[in-house]
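User: Can you predict the 3D structure for this chain?
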Amino acid sequence: MLLFFERDGGAGQYNLVVIDNRAGNSARDIYQLYNISSYDIAVQFGGERLRVSPGENTIVDSPKTDDPNFGVMMAVQSNFGHSNEVKLVYKSFWPYRPGRSGLVFIADKRGPRNQLRVRRFYMATLGEQVNEL
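Assistant: Here is the predicted structure, written as structure tokens:
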């Protein structure tokens, strides 16, 4: 999969990102997080905490929960290894439905500094049917 997104002030110029989509081939429900922003991102995903550096991606198992939603928070941390200071830039509750996996793209947002744009795309987990997206 190729992802195109417009460059700031690029007047018809685009950045191109190659996406290795492992979510569609997984036998378990996962989220694959892609950090295409210019920041280190600290993520709390349900009860799990992790870091995703610019240009990297990571796979997280979907939380198995009795709740229909789970909390997701993202913070920008300029020096992850040497500082405990973070700025919360995204907070949401995501729906959990068995039988689906997701691709999550974390990108810079035009406008104020340290803002993120988070987009989720869902697909059926291998061998499962998804009726609701």
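DSSP finds no helices and ten strands in the chain. Confidence is low (pLDDT under 50) at residues 129-133.
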